[in-house]
Q: What sequence folds into this?
């Protein structure tokens, strides 16, 4: 608070307004019916490994923000929890673990609604996105076949949305039609040549690169992918294509090396494109002994566990049920 000629000036930062999003339904309907397709998400109730379980995070500004998950227009048993960003007052987020949703409300079509409150006024509720939740299955004919899943952790300042996400470790995934792979080793070779023409190896190192090729996709998918490419601090990609070179591209830790390059087509709002990645940790090298130490790449966190519960009254089993570990559990027992 500076002092100038005995006049005090208080700095006042007005609260940030909620995002000016286009009306979701009208955006879906506009020009091309393909734009109304919901996001594609999978979950596996038998296995919590991350590659089989998608996750989405939603954020918004306000004095408070209510996130509501609905299935077929009905509020779900799964309750999204609003969390304020630790380094951005007045900005809130929630994380939807689809494995937890499936365990409580089953598979089907869902929507996330957002209701911000600013300066004591409740703003109109809007639909953030719609989702089609299906069980994860593998094999040639499966719900995952033909898709790529990018999983990112956001943990720095995002000027695009005006939010400091530092220390929030926001986790979000996107599954879409595409293919990941097309590796290139980009090998760097260092040899030593002696006066007699003999060569000896000093070091060889692979700087492996990958391509993420996006099939014809809609505005919603492309824009979300661009957000991942722009904002990821940690990133893992899984490929589910029967004709891929490797069937082991599961949660490969990578980092962006080239941004999304789109291919536009007249007469449609859909487009294709390519983004390029490199290994998060470079470990493919052979060399004489030196002091370099190779780091270990972080693995993505697994989905929340689904716990089994038995309710016993006076030694008699009254009920058995399952519930996700990330949801508060309340059991009401009425004894008559």
A:
């Amino acid at each position: 608070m500076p002092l100038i000629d005995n006049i005090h000036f208080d700095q006042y930062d007005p609260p940030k307004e909620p995002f000016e999003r286009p009306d979701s339904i009208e955006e879906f309907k506009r020009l091309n019916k393909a734009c109304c397709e919901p996001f594609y998400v999978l979950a596996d109730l038998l296995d919590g490994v991350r590659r089989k379980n998608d996750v989405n995070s939603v954020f918004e500004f306000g004095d408070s923000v209510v996130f509501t998950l609905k299935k077929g227009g009905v509020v779900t048993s799964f309750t999204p929890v609003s969390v304020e960003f630790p380094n951005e007052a007045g900005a809130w987020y929630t994380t939807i673990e689809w494995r937890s949703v499936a365990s409580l409300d089953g598979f089907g079509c869902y929507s996330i609604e957002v209701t911000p409150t600013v300066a004591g006024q409740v703003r109109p509720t809007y639909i953030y996105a719609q989702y089609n939740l299906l069980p994860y299955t593998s094999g040639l004919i499966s719900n995952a076949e033909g898709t790529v899943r990018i999983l990112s952790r956001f943990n720095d300042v995002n000027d695009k949305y005006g939010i400091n996400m530092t220390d929030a470790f926001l986790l979000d995934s996107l599954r879409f039609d595409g293919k990941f792979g097309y590796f290139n080793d980009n090998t760097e070779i260092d040899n030593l040549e002696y006066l007699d023409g003999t060569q000896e190896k000093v070091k060889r190192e692979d700087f492996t690169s990958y391509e993420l090729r996006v099939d014809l996709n809609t505005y919603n998918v492309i824009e979300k992918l661009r957000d991942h490419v722009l904002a990821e601090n940690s990133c893992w990609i899984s490929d589910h294509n029967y004709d891929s070179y490797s069937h082991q591209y599961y949660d490969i830790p990578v980092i962006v090396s080239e941004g999304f390059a789109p291919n536009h087509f007249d007469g449609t709002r859909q487009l294709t494109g390519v983004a390029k990645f490199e290994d998060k940790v470079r470990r493919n090298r052979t060399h004489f002994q030196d002091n370099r130490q190779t780091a270990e790449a972080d693995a993505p966190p697994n989905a929340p566990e689904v716990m089994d519960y038995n309710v016993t009254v006076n030694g008699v089993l009254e009920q058995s049920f399952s519930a996700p570990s990330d949801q508060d559990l309340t059991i009401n027992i009425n004894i008559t």
